[in-house]
Specification:
Layout lengths: L1 E4 L2 E4 L1 E6 L19 E2 L2 E2 H10 L5 E6 L12 E4 L8 H5 L10 E5 L2 E3 L1 H8 L5 E6 L19 E5 L2 E6 L9 E9 L1 H19 L19 H10 L5 E5 L3 E3 L3 H10 L5
Parallel strand pairs: 3-6, 3-8, 6-7, 10-14
Antiparallel strand pairs: 1-2, 4-5, 8-13, 9-15, 10-13, 11-12, 11-13
Helix pairs in contact: 1-3, 4-5
């Protein structure tokens, strides 16, 4: 459902995917998922919830997997992916498929971002919008444990994303997808319909779906693989540009950087 608030439309639902084991953050994730790591006296998830609720997005859904019992925040609707070790972001998201149909904000669970970034995303009237950091390259200076090849980079023409992938030539990239996206009711319908089409093709044993864009299979796919599928099928996907104001926490190096730069006042 959409309501008018502060001169823009607010999608009243967010889906956060937090199923992965976070192996690269061991030993910090030995007994908890990445979103429960603390930065500046608060967990990553606490900061995500604050950024969403300040907009205000109060209908929040979360897909859990690894160490699911460590996440116990109230006023969140939880889903569980029992196959989290065999899956990646896209199949985990679809564990909450019945929450998608009216439109939703999608969020990774291992990123820090401010409420104003959510606000800018909500202002987009496009059916499918992705937040893209145009100043992405400077974050990779000294980031030796997470190479540029793993950045989810995008090529943009006339505000439309025409390519999204890892292992892209960084010289042609407009920016990096930060893991925050918006799907309107129509956008969600497009996403669901095309995901089911791929799944049906897989069940029928079509060879063309054994690999799915950057992923070895749809079971190992990221949301970005599905977005590229939609782009290839002719559906417009738009960029909502920002210039910093967020962090990804994927390695111990990232975590230490976040603790140095993301103060308690943020």
């Amino acid at each position: 459902m959409l309501i008018r608030c502060h001169r823009y439309f607010v999608c009243m639902k967010a889906i956060i995917v937090a199923a992965g084991p976070g192996k690269r953050l061991l030993p910090y994730t030995q007994d908890k998922p990445k979103c429960m790591l603390e930065v500046g006296g608060k967990t990553i998830l606490q900061r995500t919830l604050t950024a969403l609720r300040e907009n205000p997005i109060t209908d929040i859904v979360m897909v859990k997997g690894y160490k699911k019992d460590a996440i116990k925040y109230p006023n969140i609707k939880y889903y569980y992916n029992p196959n989290f070790l065999e899956n990646n972001v896209l199949p985990s998201l679809f564990c909450a498929e019945k929450e998608m149909k009216d439109g939703f904000i999608f969020s990774y669970s291992d990123i820090l971002y401010h409420a104003n970034i959510v606000q800018k995303l909500l202002q987009s009237q496009r059916d499918i919008s992705l937040v893209v950091d145009t100043e992405w390259a400077q974050r990779y200076e000294g980031r030796t444990l997470h190479p540029v090849d793993e950045a989810e980079l995008v090529v943009v023409k006339n505000h439309k994303i025409v390519k999204i992938a890892k292992f892209m030539n960084p010289d042609i990239a407009h920016g990096e997808f930060i893991g925050l996206a918006k799907f309107t009711r129509k956008g969600a319908e497009i996403l669901i319909r095309n995901y089911k089409r791929i799944r049906i093709s897989q069940w029928c044993g079509f060879k063309e779906v054994h690999r799915f864009h950057d992923a070895i299979s749809i079971d190992k796919a990221y949301l970005t693989d599905m977005v590229q599928e939609l782009i290839d099928r002719g559906y417009p996907v738009y960029s909502v540009d920002i210039d910093g104001g967020w962090l990804e926490i994927d390695t111990p190096q990232d975590l230490q950087m976040a603790k140095r730069t993301w103060g308690k006042d943020k």
